[in-house]
Amino acid sequence: MRNILQVWGIVVGEMDSSGYRQWTAVPASDGEFGNLFDREQVAMLRLAAVLTGSVGDAEDVVQDAFAAVHQRWEDLDRPGAYLRTSVVNGCRMVVRHRGVESRHLNGRDAEVAVELPSHLVELREAVSKLDYRQRVVVVLRYFVDLPDKEIAEVLGCRPSTVRSLAHRGLALLRKELT
Amino acid sequence: MTAIEERLRADLRELARHMVPDQPLGSHGSSPVADPDDGSNARPFDLHDPSIQRRPGRRVLVAFALLVIGVSGIGIWWASGDDVTQTATSAQSPTTTAEFPASGGEAERFGTWAPIPEAPIVSRSHAVAGWTGSEVLLWAGSSLDRSFAYTDGAAYDPLTDTWRTIPVPGWGHPGLVSTFAGSRLYVFAKGGASSFDPSTGVWTDLPPTDGLVASGAVAAVDAVWAVGSVSFGQDARPNLAVARFDEATQHWVRGPVFEGLAGDAPVVDALMSLERDPIWTGSEVVVWGSAGSGLAYDTGKETWRRIPAPVPPSGVLVDSTAVMTSAGLTLIAEIDDSGGPTMSMVTLVGGTWVWSDADDLPIGSIDRVKVASAGDWLVLLRPDGAPIIVNAATGSWSVAVDGPLAGLEGASAVWTGSEMVVWGGVATSIAGIEDPSTGAVWTPPTDVIAAGEDQAAASDMARTGRCEDASHVVATFTARLPQGVSLGVSSMVLSRDPGLESWYFSSARVIGGPFDGSTATWAQPAFDGVHVDAYNTPNLAVPINEAAGSMGFGTNSLRPANYGVDDWFQLDGAIASRDCVSAVQPGG
């Protein structure tokens, strides 16, 4: 069975049984999805970049997230929220995979570093030391300005857990960002 | 807002703009910048642009790396910045200390604490508490010495993190004995009882308890049992008895009186004085005495029996309190030997007491400690220090120092199936409580599938089982749902597909019904169904036998529809075992 994926009005490919995706480009149209894409793509890119610390990985994650949203478009009541959760989950997988990659590839395939002012380098390194769930809470709270209840929905946990994660995350950042 | 929060707000946005400046995804053009503040009119990415195609090359490298790991069996796994690699351990060395909330490795091993909002009722001791499936109900309570009783209550919803008050019954008696069963809170006062329906807010008076003055109550799978005393004659010593509430006739039916009173007076006295709560094991109502022995009433056979006291490896058992864990009836026991008193833990497994390695728990005296069970975990609230979290399976424990619940006596604790809500109590011998009315919630470590966790969490679970070189992982865990219904997944099989670099549920055997704590088995399961080959499906319908009706199963959710429960339940349970296998049978 062919599994066709469409992204923003474009059939972008199919996924065979092995999970490998062969991309093709076919024009199509999908206005609502396009509006979402227009509105959210850079915001999602930035969210993913801050969470993963990598622009390249962020592009991969966001592209996959938009594809997932489009595939489920008819079933989604809140596609924006689904998109954001997909990005957060995608970033988690990237961070985990990177742990294995870094151990076994000795840093090969590392992307070119972005030139950053020293205080932002310090911030990026401090954020990378957070446990991933703490990182998500800190970024969604202070970058995206999401209320704890919505962060809890993204993480699939209680609001009280969000507060606990924020408490621990901020404590660590205070030590790191002296 | 603190300085660190102000810096994060400013610098995270600046960092994001530096990392993703002016071009949207893959366009490399000159589209305007979008961010959470200003919205965006950025252009969509060009799917013809080869720079945004997926990167099979990188995936191949990752797959190769994973293959290397799988073949070599190296115990390394995905993790974030502060990588924590867990191992399947036997008994851990005790005496670890965590900060509040637990952080780092302690959080991984012993869970986390978080405050909850202030309750709309004043803090108190001995409030009766229950979990309705969606709310923690707190009712009545008293001063620590029980000289003054309260006549109000409140309900806390963990999902919305909000409180509400609950109506007060017309008769206004506090009722310090209660249990939550089915969908109602049963409250006992002297020779009478009432029930409260939290969904309607209506209190209903029930008939007298057939001459029994309840000192405790338990919710069995199919009935509410009151435990207490009956007196025959004005000067006669009270006799221990039980009474079952018959839903069909709406009357209490008293069971046989326990007749071997002479040698068991301490047990009975402990119950009568409300020092010890009765315990439901799945087949028996257990009344435990401080001296170290207990009495059990088999509700099926309608007979009483004695449970002998455990004999410690050395010294003498001088005091104990009992609680049900996933392993069975468990005691926190004070032992006096030549080296002085020590606190240990012992569990009744298959009729034999098995001592754990959990000595020496830092408890001064057991009689003022509240022991709350969360399956494989125990939360010990004590008047002379911070709460202690005990892993009942391994014997390891941790003290959450500097917590708002330090130095608390008489608090109420309710296990919701995924977290422990602790509220109330009064500060006693040490300083530390800022405001007990705020309470706190304890969330178990990630070893327990948390509410809302997705398939990735299950994968983590498999990974922590060190099964890198196996094709399947069988994770067994148990769960207890509210309303007195025991329900669980007897085995859940996670399979790994190296080609997809992912883990997925391949089958799950779902059973439920009375859980026999004495043998740690599911007795006469009401449900018994198998779902096979649930490949990467986020929500499944699990076929089960017709008598049980249908059951929903999310990634980790169950719906015992035949119990009339409206909401989906998270299936939260403590993992009892993990086995790495090369092949599995359907249903595990």
**Helix/strand/pairing class of chain B, anyone?**
mainly beta
Q: What global shape of chain A is seen?
A: globular
Assembly of the depicted chains = heterodimer
* Count, helices of chain B: 5
Strand content of chain B: 35-45%
Written account of the structure:
The complex is a heterodimer of chains A (178) and B (588). With 178 residues, chain A is mainly alpha-helical. In chain A, 64% of the residues lie in helices and 9% in strands. Chain A is built from seven helices and three strands. In chain A, a hairpin with a 5-residue loop joins β2 and β3. The radius of gyration of chain A is 18 Å and the shape is globular. The N terminus of chain A is likely disordered. With 588 residues, chain B is mainly β. In chain B, 10% of the residues lie in helices and 37% in strands. Chain B is built from five helices and 42 strands. Chain B has a five-stranded mixed beta sheet with strand order 1-26-25-24-23, covered by helices on one side. Chain B has a five-stranded antiparallel beta sheet with strand order 37-34-33-32-42. A four-stranded antiparallel beta sheet of chain B has the order 2-31-29-28. In chain B, β7 and β8 form a beta hairpin. Chain B is globular, with a radius of gyration of 27 Å. Chain B starts with a helix and ends in a 7-residue tail after the last strand. The C terminus of chain B is likely disordered. The chains are: A mainly alpha (178), B mainly beta (588). The interface between A and B is large, with 82 and 75 residues.
